[in-house]
From TrEMBL:
GO MF annotation, one: maleate isomerase activity
Lineage: Bacteria, Pseudomonadati, Pseudomonadota, Gammaproteobacteria, Pseudomonadales
Note: Reaction is initiated by nucleophilic attack of cysteine at the double bond, yielding a covalent succinylcysteine-like intermediate.
The protein's enzyme class: isomerase
Name of the protein in its database record: Maleate isomerase
EC number in record: 5.2.1.1
């Protein structure tokens, strides 16, 4: 039996990625032989503002170094908006820098950023145009939308729920999401990003919204899980993870 160590670099106030990614990978254990353990290092952040996000990102090198001491098999940078708020294409810059940190510690590790995973996941689905829901204030939401568009993906309708406190983001009821999606225009999109945020829970709503809209539904957590499995060269079938984690991509 293979045991895979999953490392996550998380904001100090994030409580969702350490819930949803383990839930997805534990669900995978029902249909595949690999087993997973989970290890985290934290970057200080309480409020989702551009200034706090930039300061927090400065801690990511330390976190990567700490996790590489544990010789994790894959490492995820679990803050989508921190990456996207740093400028176009920053997910590539961050991933390369953090990989160099692990290499310099004699523990070269695949690096997945949630921002890059979301972009890659949308592309894997073949989606050209998406609808997006974020918990962020409007200026940060517009940065996220602009970042996605700069990667060559059209964004149709989008919603900013305008929750600035990160713990309040985690407390948002995922069962509100089907109603939010129902209020949006989704007939002209190829896929729906139900949560462009690693802190806003959505896992329990993904299959529901796929049935409601008859379109692929993706979240930051689902995309990160898919990208981690892909980097590990493992099959990507995860029960309850929606279309991207059906095993077809």
């Amino acid at each position: 039996m293979k045991v895979v160590r999953v490392g996550q670099i998380v904001p100090s106030s994030n409580i969702t990625m350490e819930t949803e990614i383990p839930a997805l990978l534990k669900a995978r254990e029902l249909v595949a032989p690999e087993r997973f353990t989970f290890h985290s290092s934290r970057m200080r952040m309480k409020h989702v503002t551009k200034e706090e996000l930039a300061r927090m990102d400065g801690d990511s090198d330390r976190c990567a170094l700490e996790l590489s001491d544990a010789r994790v098999d894959v490492m995820g940078y679990a803050c989508l908006v921190a990456i996207m708020s740093m400028g176009h294409g920053y997910h590539r810059v961050s991933a390369e820098r953090l990989r160099n940190v692990t290499e310099n510690n004699d523990a070269a590790t695949p690096i997945i950023t949630s921002a890059g995973a979301l972009i890659d996941g949308i592309r894997a689905l073949g989606a050209k145009r998406v609808a997006v829901v974020t918990p962020y204030m409007k200026p940060l939401t517009e940065l996220v939308v602009d970042y996605i568009r700069h990667e060559g993906i059209e964004v149709g309708d989008y919603r900013a729920l305008e929750i600035s406190d990160n713990l309040a983001v985690a407390a948002h009821d995922p069962m509100n999401l089907p109603g939010i999606i129902a209020s949006m225009r989704t007939d002209d999109v190829d896929a729906i990003v139900i949560s462009a945020c690693v802190q806003m829970p959505s896992l329990n709503a993904i299959t529901m919204v796929e049935a409601q809209t008859r379109k692929p539904v993706i979240s930051a957590a689902v995309a990160t899980t898919w990208a981690m499995l892909t980097a590990l060269d493992l099959p990507t079938r995860v029960p309850g993870g929606g279309t991207l984690l059906s095993g077809a991509y």
